[in-house]
Amino acid sequence: RGPLPRPPQTRVMVVANQKGGVGKTTTTVNMAAALAQGGLRVLVVDLDPQGNASTALSIDHHRGTLSTYDAIVDGTDLAEIVQPSPEIEHLFVVPATIDLAGAEIELVSMVARESRLRKALHAHPQILADTEDRFDYVLIDCPPSLGLLTLNALVAGDEMLIPIQAEYYALEGLGQLLETVEMVKAHLNPGLDVSTIVLTMYDARTRLSAGVAEEVRGHFGDQVLRTAIPRSVRISEAPSYGQTVMTYDPSSPGALSYLEAAREMAFRVEPEAAAAASTIANQ
Ligand code: ADP
Ligand code: MG
């Protein structure tokens, strides 16, 4: 398969969908693992107070651990907070602790409350930098709501990675998410791009899954990755071993599909970004 291409600059991807249980966390950790296994440097930012991404990646996130909360609320340097994955090389994590549950309310009265994560990311010397050791990908795992935490992710990100569960009601609530994105683009982050949609928990045996996939592809066209993630017990078992499916069962269909999806994502760099980068490189 070979290594994956480094993007022209750090791609900050926001994994969001305000519905719970659609595969945000699963997609974040497995895409991150697959990108890292492809030789890229990846940072996962856990922005959900539940800390499921931290758990799945075996990252310490007991109360009191430096976490996303400290970065957003107290302005602590991300460099002090980042932990390396114990399992996967090139993969790093900013954990979430339960303190983050309070941040949603604490943020309300804070200065620049929507852009605190952006500020933290931009201050990190390996993010959006031009150094050899810069992160190639930052994946932000959002909580299942459209509150201030998710808003911080939308303001901090370049692109969105939206998991859609191949289930009845799949598109319900998506309108609200896309309206929020439009609002953010108009006022806070004009460059935000809904670049990538991935179908999750796809069941090839059911007409329902096929029907949902067709509807999503009809609606979003090329934004939808060709690879759909199948429903797989191995994928859902992996977190209870503190692993991604990429290490838990690398040859399972679930692992192979995330590998393929990550590959597709890595080879689909925004044309403008690629063009801009080559223009700069040629100067
Ligand atoms: P979210 O972060 O959007 O709330 P999760 O990633 O936590 O969603 O997934 C919700 C549940 O579905 C979890 O128990 C997870 O293990 C399970 N799950 C996610 N993707 C798959 C899949 N492809 N096959 C089987 N179970 C899955
Ligand atoms: Mg989650």
UniProtKB/TrEMBL annotation:
It comes from Nocardioides iriomotensis. Residues 11-193 form the AAA domain. Belongs to the ParA family. This is ParA family protein. The lineage of its organism: Bacteria, Bacillati, Actinomycetota, Actinomycetes, Propionibacteriales. May play a role in septum formation.
